[in-house]
Write a structure and sequence with these properties.
It contains six helices and six strands. It is an alpha/beta fold. The chain folds into two domains: 39 residues, no CATH class; 71 residues, Ribosomal Protein L15, Chain: K, domain 2, CATH 3.100.10. A four-stranded mixed beta sheet has the order 2-3-5-6. The radius of gyration is 31 Å and the shape is elongated. The N and C termini lie far apart (75 Å).
């Protein structure tokens, strides 16, 4: 019966070269010196003049994508939070609270309930939030 042997990879953990000698050997990129921008002389000056002549200044520097999550990030507030902080967020005129959320929040969500009539101003509302606000006799102003 064969003996279970530990793999070479496991034995070599912690060693920089994994038993292949110099760092540049066995890197899996053939003889091209690495992948991507490796070996282009970004940090050293030997290759810079030729690269600049061929590609121009746009060769160096950051390029790429902007995360969609960062663009879509909205500051939201729930009806429950509005209900809890109703005196801090707006002022009361007659029997209705006037609350302007445009500077701090971008969307009102429907979690919780609103116990007071309110005239809310915000850039967007969820469908359920609109229903809940109008059900208690409140008013909604959607601004862009």
């Amino acid at each position: 019966m064969p003996v279970n042997r530990r793999k070479k990879v496991v034995k070599m953990r912690g060693l920089t070269t994994h038993g292949w000698g110099a760092k540049k050997k066995h890197r899996g990129a053939g003889s091209r010196g690495g992948r991507g921008m490796a070996g282009t002389g970004k940090r050293a000056d030997q290759k810079k003049p030729t690269i600049l002549k061929e590609y121009g200044q746009s060769y160096f520097g950051k390029r790429g994508f902007v995360s969609y999550k960062k663009l879509k990030k909205q500051k939201t507030i729930n009806l429950q939070e509005i209900n809890d902080k109703i005196n801090l967020l707006g002022k009361k005129e007659d029997d209705i609270y006037i609350i302007d959320l445009t500077d701090k929040y971008s969307k009102v969500l429907a979690k919780g309930n609103l116990n007071h009539k309110a005239k809310l101003t915000c850039s967007s509302f969820s469908k359920k939030a609109l229903e809940k606000i109008e059900k208690i006799g409140g008013e909604v102003i959607i601004c862009k």
